[in-house]
Amino acid sequence: MKIENPNPFQWHFAERASQMQSSFIREILKVTQQPEIISFAGGLPSPATFPVEIMKEAFDKVLSDSGKVALQYGPTDGYLPLRQWIADSLSTGGAKIVPEQVLMVSGSQQALDLLGKVLIDEGSKVLVETPSYLGALQAFSVYRPNFVSVDTDDDGLVPSSLHDVAAGARLLYALPNFQNPTGRTLSVARRHELVETCARLNLPLIEDDPYGALSYKGDPLPKMVAMNPDGVIYMGSFSKVLTPGIRLGYVVAPLAMVRRLELAKQAADLHTSQLTQMVVHHVIKDGFLEKHIPTIRTLYGDQCQVMLDAMAEHFPAGVSWTKPEGGMFIWVTLPKHINAMELLDEAIKQKVAFVPGSPFYANEPQTNTLRLSFVTVPPERIRAGVAILAKLIADRM
Ligand code: PMP
C-alpha cells in the first residue's frame, strides 16, 4: 500500500524512501479498530494477559531502589543481568550461550532492521520462507535485497530445497515455531537438518522465535540456536509473553556478529530503555514467566480450538486450513479462483476482517490465502465471524 500524497513539496527523497511501503496490516488495523468489527486481522497479543499490576509494582520498585541508574543513558548492548538471564535460558541441551552474545533491542523488529543493515547489500540474495513474516520482508526491503523464496509444507520449511537456491545467499530467515502467518511448526528432524545444511553451506540462519513459548500442549521444541550457537542468529521478544508496548526484544549471535549488530544499534538509537530492561528483569528474575505463560497458552489454545471447531462446522468443502499447536494464527487456503483481497472488501461490509495472504509472499503471491488471528476475539464473536466468512466464501464457490 503506497503512502497517500507521498511528496506534496517535491522534496528529493532517497531512493529507498520512495520505495517504502506501509505494512498492509497496519493499514487494515486502522479500519478494524472500530468496535463493531469482528477483527481476525490483528496480530496483537490479548491485553487480558498483560500483567499491569505487576509491571506497576516493578516500575515503582526499580525507580525507588535504582532510579538514578534506570533513568540514565545505558550501554548499547543492554542491561547485563537481563542478558545473563536470557543467555542462561537459552543454554539448553548442552549449549553454552554467554551474555556477551546477547544484544538487547527495542522490540525484535529492530533486530530485523539491524540484521538487514549488517548482512544485506543492494541485490544480495536473501532466503525467506513461502509465505513469511510481513514485517521482516518490510524491514529487509529497505536494503533492497533479491528475495528468493524457499519451499515450505505442513512441517514448515523444507531444508532440502535450500540446495538449489543457497549459492551466494547472505542469510536464511526462518520462523520455526507457530509461524507468522501460517501457524506451522518446523519438525524437530527438520530443525537438525536445517542447522546442518546451513552450517555446511556457511549460510547464516536467522531463527525468529517470538511465539516459541506459546505452545498449547507439551514442551516447546528444541531451539536451533542451541543446536549450533556458532551458526544461528536467534531473535527473541518479550512482546508475546509479557507485553508488546514495552518494546523489548533481543538478538543472540556469534560474538563476531553481535559486535557488528551492536555498532549498527549504536547508530540507530544508542540503546534500548534501561528503565524498561531493569523492570522486566525485576519481573521475571524469580520465575514469574513460568506461572504467567501457561495462562496465555490456555487462553490462546482455547480460542484457537473455538475457531477451528467453527471452521470445521461452517467452511465449505474445498477450503483448507492449518491446525496450529501454539501461537496466534491460522492460515486458510481457499479454492484457487477466490481472491482473498476481494473477499476482504465484502467481509468488511459485513463487519468481519482478516489479513489477505498476498503481502506475506516475497514473490508470486498466492491470492487465495488469508491469515486469521483468534487471540483478541471472545469465543461468541469468533463463532459469529467465522459463520459470516463461511457464507461469503460459499457464495463464491
Ligand atoms: N517477528 C515476528 C515473526 C513477529 O510476528 C513479530 C511481531 N508481530 C516480530 C518479529 C516483532 O515483534 P516485537 O518487535 O514486538 O518483538
Automatic annotation (TrEMBL):
The superkingdom listed in its UniProt entry is: Bacteria
Q: What InterPro entries does UniProt report for this protein, alphabetically?
A: Aminotransferase_I/II_large, Class-I_PLP-dep_aminotransf, PyrdxlP-dep_Trfase, PyrdxlP-dep_Trfase_major, PyrdxlP-dep_Trfase_small
Instruction: Kindly state which keywords UniProt assigns to this record, in alphabetical order.
Output: Aminotransferase, Pyridoxal phosphate, Transferase
Instruction: State the SUPFAM superfamilies in the record.
Output: PLP-dependent transferases (SSF53383)
Q: Tell me the GO BP annotations in alphabetical order.
A: alpha-amino acid metabolic process
Entry similarity comment: Belongs to the class-I pyridoxal-phosphate-dependent aminotransferase family.
Question: What name has this protein been given in UniProt?
Answer: 2-aminoadipate transaminase
Give the originating organism. Answer: Pseudoduganella namucuonensis
